[in-house]
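Students often ask why we bother encoding 3D structure as a string. The short answer is that it lets us treat folding as translation between two languages. Here is a chain of 120 residues written in the first language.
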Amino acid sequence: MKSAGGIGGATPTILYFVAGVFWVGVLVAGGGSLLFWPALTCFVSGIMLYAWSSSWITRPLIYATALFGLVLTVYQLYVALTLIGTGLDPIAGITGAIFAVLTAIYLYLLLFGNRRRDEA
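And here it is in the second language, the structure alphabet:
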């Protein structure tokens, strides 16, 4: 396995682990038990990118994980934005900002996360 010279090549791997930690945090804070799946897929994608970036299964897995996470975060962002004007503006603002950042991370992973570390 070739590795990139700097941290730029490892950025998608790091972001998958960051997203996985976020979903575990949501799960521990009282989120539904179904949020175990996005956490698991993020960790598995991060491990696959780190250990077997050129494997035949890694590229489809990271695309599927990024798309799965993007759909979840866009929905959560939509729900947060619908709370604006209902008296829950502070909650809507905080939740909307968090999910906007996570949506941007998943967009980055979907568009640029397919670069293997040896291509960076």
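Translate back mentally: Residues 1-5 have pLDDT under 50 and may be disordered. Keep this in mind for the problem set.
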